Amino acid sequence: MRSCLRLVGRLPGAMPWKSVPRSWLAAIVAVLAAIGLTEAGVDAGPGRHAAGLPNGLVPGQPGRPGIAAMPTTGPVSDPGTAAGTRSTTAAAFSRIILPDLLIVMPSGLTGAEIAGLRRIKGVRNMITFDGAQITAAGQPATVIGVSPGQFRSWVPLGTATDQRLWTRLAAGDFVESSQATGLPALSAGRRYRLSGARSLLVPFAASAQVGIAGVDLLVNQAVSARLGLVHRVAALISAPGPSVAALTAQVRIVLGPRAKVVDLRDRRLPAAAKPGQISGYLQLFRASAATYCPSMSWTILAAIGQIESADGQNMGPSSAGALGPMQFLPSTWAEWGFDGFGPSGRPDIMNPMDAVPSAARMLCADGAASGTQAGLRQAIFAYNHADWYVNEVLALAARYAAEYR
């Protein structure tokens, strides 16, 4: 079996991994810190107060765009009895979404700006969230305000699938990041004082891995508005088709120069390998799935690679003009090809370090991200429009799963 699967040979042109942060979401903190979000609240600026942002914030410091200290005193209220904070249940988890861009707007994104971003060609998913620094149990804490049912798709899978956690967050409790530092030990079910523009007593749900280095707490949007966090201060965009350069250019047209835009596509570190370890197809298939489609087994990529080119033994062109180890048509490559683990520069359809990650992104966007059998079949069918092909890929993937345990 193993001899026919050809997964252990060294890749042609294999290169060391790019040096990237361990979590793509760590980029959020770096950018928010640059505008002072992890140091102070943000003033929305003249005529641009976001919804729910109180007018009592002190002016921004000279030379810093909209940075302001947030008051930590004020009337105390209990979100447990507030309308809208404890009347919802988080939608069931459905999929993991991989972001391509982080956008930070210090003054908050307007409705028109959000609509403009959603209209950009290639944008498939987008989410916005609030944020600022407050005090929690008397200690400084960076908090973001999210829509639980939406935001859970953008965090690590183990946390995303914890239905009880997201239901509690939707009900008005707060969640502590397991990476939070400086906060006292918190007890589930107990209420703690969170102080922003107003001071609230908020029940603590649990600690969890949220994949956001430097962010301490999550609250829902109703609690966020009452605390006075900057409304829609940041957005995540998933647009797996366009190049990052083209996507960023379109964002600039919509938002202008004030927005901070960060490429997240190259910041995802695969869980299945370490720098310098990608030397063969086995590592490459595993790393590509873990990085660019964590809801899909690497064995699907392995099966497609074997069927299409015997893992690089037949690079084409095919009778239809397909090329490379994953047999992309040039027109499809123009949309989906990118320099995944290969050298920076123009994506190379013949280089497996680019072709395999590109196939993973394409499959994920075409249905594999759902984590369901129906979604997976849909994605494979989109790769090659034939039922026999879908069945053959799934059968070979099952053989890989049995062989490489």
Describe the structure.
The chain has 405 residues and is of the alpha+beta class. The protein is 32% helix and 16% strand. The chain folds into two domains: 2-20 and 271-403, Lysozyme, CATH 1.10.530; 26-267, no CATH class. The chain has helices at residues 2-5, 26-34, 111-118, 148-151, 157-160, 163-171, 221-227, 244-255, 281-292, 298-309, 330-336, 352-365, 373-383, 387-403, and strands at residues 41-42, 67-68, 76-77, 101-104, 125-136, 139-146, 174-177, 191-195, 199-208, 217-220, 230-238, 260-263. A hairpin with a 3-residue loop joins strand 8 and strand 9. Helix 9 crosses helix 10, helix 9 (281-292) runs parallel beside helix 12 and helix 12 (352-365) crosses helix 13 (373-383). Residues 1-24, 34-87 and 268-275 have low confidence and may be disordered.
Keywords:
405 residues, two-stranded antiparallel sheet, alpha+beta, six-stranded mixed β-barrel, Lysozyme
Topology:
Elements: H1 2-5, H2 26-34, E1 41-42, E2 67-68, E3 76-77, E4 101-104, H3 111-118, E5 125-136, E6 139-146, H4 148-151, H5 157-160, H6 163-171, E7 174-177, E8 191-195, E9 199-208, E10 217-220, H7 221-227, E11 230-238, H8 244-255, E12 260-263, H9 281-292, H10 298-309, H11 330-336, H12 352-365, H13 373-383, H14 387-403
Strand order of the largest sheet: 5-6-10-7-9-8
Beta-strand percentage?
15-25%
The count of strands amounts to: 12
Largest sheet: 6 strands, mixed, barrel
In whole angstroms, how far apart are the ends? 14 Å
SSE pattern, N- to C-terminal: HHEEEEHEEHHHEEEEHEHEHHHHHH
Count of individual helical segments = 14
Mean pLDDT: 75
- Domain count: the total is 2
Name the poorly predicted regions.
1-24, 34-87, 268-275
Backbone CA Rg: 23 Å
Classification by helices and strands: alpha+beta
Q: What does the oligomeric state look like here?
A: single chain
Shape: globular
Helix content: 25-40%
